[in-house]
User: What shape does this take?
Amino acid sequence: MRRHLLIGHFGTKDDVGIPAASDEIVSELDLLVGDRLGHGIGYALSDMEKLNLGPSEVAVDLMVLAAHIHAADTRLARSTESQDGWSREIRLVVPVSDPKLWTRSASIVKRALDFLTGDRWQIGFRARPEAQATLAIPRPKPLLPVPFDAINLFSGGLDSLIGAIDTLEAGGAPLLVSHAGEGAVSKSQEECYEVLKTAYPDAAFDRLRIWMTFGDGLIDGVESESTTRGRSFLFFSLGVAAGVGLGKEFVLRVPENGLIALNVPLDRLRLGALSTRTTHPFYMARWNELLDALGIDGELVNPYWNKTKGEMVKECTNRDALDAATGHSLSCSSPAKARWKGEPQGHCGYCLPCLIRRASLAGNDPTEYGVQDLTEGTLDTRQAEGQQVRSFQLAIGRLARRPDLARVLIHKPGPLSDYPDRIDSYADVYRRGLEEVGKILNGVKTAPS
Assistant: This one.
């Protein structure tokens, strides 16, 4: 294991000295490209200005912090930089507008990140240099009302698509917020948005995207990391910054079905951060705690925490719009993995999100999967094509034999103490979610080959 320190600075003139421990490997993250904030932040702020949004300095700080987290998370390989093949030790020093305010909130950020990524984080803050004391762009037309009444995360996945449709059907005017990453994901966001524009030509909604990637070699001599467990911090940061830009109390909707949100490990091999915790109730609660500590008048909400994905599809308030966009949405956990086989990027058909998607759309699924027919042959449990299927089969069988285990197993991924009145509902959506997947696995054979 090697400990890493990542120090953010604003150009070459910002040469403040940060003491490092003797066993820390020090790297720097330059936040400027010329006179503009880099890593997509400057462009995102410009896009907010065009939308007549005016985020605060603290909201800009949040995006800068997210850049540090995303850089460290994606450019420090777990295989070489951790002692156990997973948990890394990462310290960040982030330049912000109000170091005292952020230092008081540092323990909340650490608690959220430790849970989210499975690493050990230390977060420190320092004052921005004088030349960057003001970075937030005021609303250009303060006398005109902002047309948006909510912020929705819009990943290009099926859940976020349903969230947008339900909001629009309720008469809302959401701003759809996305992170444009790899090509397949960006394409899905683009195509789903166009379908919504066609379905709701008179609705006052728009979108905001941030393009944030970091080149190989950011950390000298260290390979990149592919797991990106911390990326939701970036998504949420952009959403919150846009929400602050509304200039009023806001709700950031994070649409995710309850089975994925809880993400109970299917087997003992998927304990800890090997299962994503992007919308887990504990993590969402830490974000609301952070907003309160920062004085931000907003709240993160998952409207579908007690729904399975199939229930979300069935209850979607405009099924015609959903059917038109479903084929453009993307649920696969790693759509780019098909490139290694020389195949088009898209749905593999056998990862955990793909299986949950297949179950939710059973009988009306236009998706093309890498493994189109799960019953065509015996799936090899020693290969990726059979591992998740077999894990689901084991979990479904275990719960069928002992339904009471649901109330115990839902606590495995993390604490649920922030919402004690929801325990029965969490257990119930977990049971229903597994039963939903179980229906499409009838007749599917798995075995080691």
Summary: The radius of gyration is 22 Å. The longest helix spans residues 57-75. The mean pLDDT is 93.
